[in-house]
Specification:
mainly beta; 18-stranded mixed sheet; two-stranded antiparallel sheet; 22 strands; globular
């Protein structure tokens, strides 16, 4: 499209890890596990925009166009688990502890965040119980139940964005560019994402080599990240990341398996899932405020809300001689937000992308001479060269064309390309067919 990218990014990440685990058969009925992990991170980042018409050629550190930080967040965790095996019951009971210190600070006054005094962010921690039960319902059938709490540290991006809390004075609240997110600041006081998972399943053996299982699951997700909108004393809007959204996931997985016998094995599973939340994009509230739109609290499909998923694998042959494997996957379309001809977009994630499917084939032939084995293999990914549309134009819901004008006026698009060139988007599709041929030697 022409031009140059004027932003420069330099990032460096290091960490020091200490980890210890111990497993012990306490007696015939108890297996004890416990462990500890400590991680000290060192994160460095410097980003700045080149300003070719000014001296010096990049903005001063006091500008929103020049950001730098070096932080050392600390992560620690420990767990204890007891696996209790009785005649007709297996119990897995455990407790996990997580601790996180972002090692940064936050402004006290958000009417002038760049000039405000700072205070240290508060460390966060959580005790997470886990419980699992399994018991037989017949000689070849088992029921399992599990319940657990989980702790997920926020992505560091949301903690340290715009680390000096500088606000762009040119981005006023009067007709701001709707897509601009320059005036967004991080929040080292973000709470970790909390997830509670419930699961109920049944497994049943059918004959000697067949088995079927059904698992029903529910996930309750809290402390998802959104934005809170502030206004400076000069009337400039900016956003700060906060915990404001929640979501739930529910679904079921049906699995059928044929164990390897007579040179043939098969597994097929189907998952139906609904993933809904109050928002998929953490920046929604800020974008709504810039467009003078009231943010509506309503459940919408999350970005990864794939309603139907089918996985199939077939394995043929003798591992001592040759093996041919077929791996197929089908998934219904993921959601996307449709565009409209008016200023406001339609319901978030109200549209669906096309379905996706692919087939991979792996073949292996083995030769043995004395104590040496040589295996020749061929791996073919995406055998049918399927063009799965992983990204789409928001007005058509397809990756191949759009009806939106690229610009106002004129008879050709800006930049170096023609209109037809602009709509050729390889990044909107999944990877094409790929073939690997090779060999392995074993002694």
């Amino acid at each position: 499209s022409g031009g140059q990218q004027m932003w420069n990014f330099n990032r460096e990440t290091q960490y020091y890890l200490v980890k210890a685990e111990l497993t012990s058969e306490f007696n015939n009925n108890h297996q004890i596990k416990f462990g500890f992990e400590g991680r000290l991170n060192n994160l460095k980042m410097h980003e700045f925009e080149v300003l070719p018409d000014q001296e010096p050629h990049y903005a001063p550190i006091t500008s929103f166009q020049n950001n730098i930080y070096e932080v050392e967040p600390i992560e620690m965790s420990g767990y204890f688990q007891d696996k209790m095996e009785f005649e007709d019951l297996v119990v897995n009971a455990g407790l996990r502890f997580d601790y996180f210190d972002p090692a940064y600070n936050v402004p006290v006054d958000f009417s002038r965040p760049e000039l405000s005094d700072r205070e240290p962010a508060e460390p966060t921690y959580q005790f997470s119980p886990r419980l699992g039960l399994a018991f037989p319902i017949s000689e070849t059938g088992v029921v399992h139940v599990s319940y657990g709490h989980f702790f997920q540290i926020p992505n560091y991006f949301y903690l340290y964005t715009n680390p000096q809390f500088n606000i762009d004075p040119l981005q006023s609240s009067v007709s701001p560019p709707p897509s601009s997110l320059k005036n967004t600041v991080g929040n080292a006081n973000l709470e970790p994402q909390q997830t509670t998972i419930y699961e109920l399943g049944i497994q049943q053996q059918l004959g000697g080599i067949y088995g079927v299982s059904l698992t029903v699951f529910f996930k309750d997700i809290r402390n998802l990240i959104g934005t809170e909108v502030f206004r400076t004393l000069e009337g400039i809007q900016f956003a700060r990341y906060i915990n404001r959204d929640f979501a739930y996931v529910r679904g079921a997985t049906l699995d059928f398996e044929r164990r390897y016998a007579q040179n043939f094995a098969m597994n097929i599973n189907y998952t139906y899932q609904i993933a809904m939340g109050t928002a998929s994009d953490p920046n929604n509230a800020f974008l709504d405020a810039q467009a003078d739109k009231e943010t509506e609290k309503q459940l919408v499909p999350l970005n990864w809300d794939r309603r139907h998923q089918i996985n199939l694998s077939l394995r043929l042959g003798d591992p001592k001689d040759y093996v041919i494997s077929f791996i197929g996957r089908y998934g219904s379309g993921l959601p996307y937000t449709q565009a409209s001809r008016v200023i406001q977009p339609l319901l978030e994630n109200g549209g669906r992308k096309p379905d996706e499917y692919t087939l991979d084939i792996f073949a292996n032939k083995r030769f043995i001479w004395d104590r040496t084995s040589v295996s020749f293999f061929v791996k073919i990914y995406n055998v049918f060269d399927r063009l799965n549309e992983v990204n789409v134009f928001s007005d058509t819901g397809r990756a191949s064309y759009s009806t939106e004008p690229l610009y106002a006026g004129g008879d050709r698009p800006r930049g170096l390309n023609t209109l037809d060139d602009y709509f050729i988007r390889p990044d909107f599709y999944s990877s094409p067919r790929r073939i690997l041929v090779g060999f392995e030697v074993g002694f």
